[in-house]
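Protein modeling request. Please complete all fields; requests missing the sequence field cannot be processed.
Requester role: graduate student
Desired output: 3D structure, token encoding
Chains: 1
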Amino acid sequence: MADVTHVPDRSRFESGKAYLTYEESDGRFDLQHTVVPEEMAGEGVGGALVKAAVAYAREAGLELVVTCPFAQSWLDKHPVG
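Delivered output (81 residues):
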């Protein structure tokens, strides 16, 4: 499992060179863009980023919005419940 760090001052979750950006406003938490370098592809890093972001949103009581196609596709295949 990839180590994921929340970096609120950059509005993103990071794991090495991979990251997921978000926007938080008005009680909403929008997962916007996921970047996983080719050399990290297939290692589960993107999924780990999404899981960490979803967990944060839930713990903070925020409404989850997903505009990132990768994050939406990942959540469709791996419901976090």
